[in-house]
Amino acid sequence: MKENYELIEHIYEDSNMACYTITKLTEDLKEKDNKIKRLLEDILKEYTSYMDESKKILEENGQEVKEKGVISKMMANMGIKKETKKDNSDSAIAELLIQGISMGSLNTEKKISAYDKDIDKNHIKFAKNFLKFQEKTISELKKYL
Question: What domain range is 66 assigned to?
Fold first, then answer.
């Protein structure tokens, strides 16, 4: 039964980590004059929506909602600080986000393929919408390269 929710768990974990890193990135850019900040706010809202919806699905079905570990978040925070200190241009930030979102979208795609025939069709539809959001976000970020 647990495998029925692995795809939703992935969406929760991915969106949760994205929310964390984008929030930290936004804090680091607060006093800066980056044009990409508005897009970051929009991306954060969308990821928050997916995080909340996936958490709701898991909780309604008696599944444990797992948070990413403190170490993963600490590593992400250190990486963001290092990269923005080195280069906080819109181009560098877009590239950093594209790399992270691309990894997440590849994992989402793999999981959709693995579970496509075996789990609730609404979960597949939800995951495909999440994947479309990730792909659209990458395209929007490419405008800043």
Answer: 2-142
The string of pLDDT tens digits covering residues 66-112 is 876 667 777 777 777 777 778 889 999 999 999 999 999 999 999 99
73-to-37, 76, 89, 99, 135 alpha-carbon distances in Å = 21, 5, 23, 16, 23
Domain count, the chain: 1
The pTM assigned to this predicted structure is 0.90
Give dist(CA 47, CA 35) in Å, integer: 20
Note the helical H segments in 29-89: 37-60, 70-86
Closest CA to 134 of 34, 35, 18, 54: 18
The CATH number linked to 111 is 1.20.1260.10
